[in-house]
Amino acid sequence: MVYQAARYTAAEHPASSLAFTFIQAALSMRYSALSILKQGLGGHRGWTRAWRDPTPKPAYDVIIIGGGGHGLATAYYLAKVHGITDVAVIEKGWIGGGNVGRNTTIIRSNYMFPSNTYFYEHSMKLWEGLEQDFNFNAMVSQRGVINLYHSDAQRDAFARRGNAMRLAGVDAELIDADEVRRRVPLLDFDNARFPIEGGLLQPRGGTVRHDAVAWGYARGADSRGVDIIQNCEVTGIEMKNGRAVAVQTTRGRISANKIGSAVAGHTSKIAQMVGLELPLESHVLQAFVSEGIKPHLDTVVTFGAGHFYISQSDKGGLVYGGDLDGYNSYAQRGNLPMMEHVMAGGMAIMPSIGRVRLLRHWGGVMDMTMDGSPFICRTPVDGFYLNGGWCYGGFKATPASGWCFAHTIANEEPHEYNRDFTIERFAEGRMIDEKGVGPNPWIQ
Ligand SMILES: Cc1cc2nc3c(=O)[nH]c(=O)nc-3n(C[C@H](O)[C@H](O)[C@H](O)COP(=O)(O)OP(=O)(O)OC[C@H]3O[C@@H](n4cnc5c(N)ncnc54)[C@H](O)[C@@H]3O)c2cc1C
User: Which CATH superfamily is domain 133-209+281-369 in?
Assistant: First the structure.
């Protein structure tokens, strides 16, 4: 009761936000084995809300549009690392309802280009301490990620990538077919159309419970004074003398000194509101979960001759995905031809999954850049900061993305890990086209 009263008072009197933050920190409930025991003895009636449901204030120091993983992580690090707590995260739906709660949960840092390698490795290091840091069980599981190779040429390409990773201090092992068979016996080694020759293993890669990441960051940010405002859509951005000064929302106008966009699949729509046209396309990506079966896959496997990746969740469901739908869309649902295509990829390496029933399936909207790499940057519009272009791979980036975006907003300059993730790289010919593809996001 005292806890709620303290929060209410601070929301009414923003000037007291420092004291408010202190009181919040002192009173907020730490999750631990001891608190479970204590609450268990009390019939679990003492748990407090994980975050508040505040009424938006008329003004904030910083507004982050989008309560996905990246927006919430940004707010968390703004508060925790930079001491900026007068922050609102504005989410049109509910937090965790976007891609952060829709992805196939894979984390890894097996990149080759320096711009990517050090950024994603920073993310991996943050994942490794995240649960202790934000005091939330996100089920970080470093069960390894194996990229299969199916030809000598692909082996050589993977060897090159693995060597680049090791030179950068990232773990990588090139394993042969026998070692792959030992780790994943259910793969088809006898009659596959694309015989498995081996794999590039990143032992520290793995999976994380996706929506728990949103909840953990939300709780951590809220406990430091950040307002998380759900069911509030940004419908316009107000400009004054070329500067973004306020957002129009379904819950009224809110002004801010700085406005950051972290809306993933809707990035181009928000950018349009400040007159920015980005080299981005939005596409649907689908995910699939089977019925729960006994544990038989304790790592993540990706197919090298098609687009298919699979792991098994702790509840037993096989979690898998594949290619994007080939057309532009903002709808969070996919189509049957792509479903069939993904299943065919799965059957090509692991035919036994043909006996398992598909239980759930959904789509998320992907913000695909033309070089496959993201934006974390200031923009030509004063007061407007951009985080987007995450393509297939933004979940694993969540901690580093929040870290670097918070740094960029707080200091008006990039962190060393995001200095290449600019919009200008396309005009300057400095694309980070790790996958070597042209302007065709659907074939990445
Ligand atoms: C099926 C699928 C599988 C994937 N698998 C992986 C994987 O295994 N590994 C990996 O690294 N990545 C994966 N990804 C990619 C990853 O999920 C995304 O790149 C990442 O989650 C995007 O960042 P986010 O979490 O901030 O996005 P989101 O969670 O989508 O957050 C953006 C938020 O902005 C909100 N928003 C949009 N417009 C507005 C507005 N006008 N006003 C207010 N709020 C707004 C949305 O409601 C949404 O909640 C996958 C994605 C999908 C869909």
Answer: D-Amino Acid Oxidase, subunit A, domain 2 (3.30.9.10)
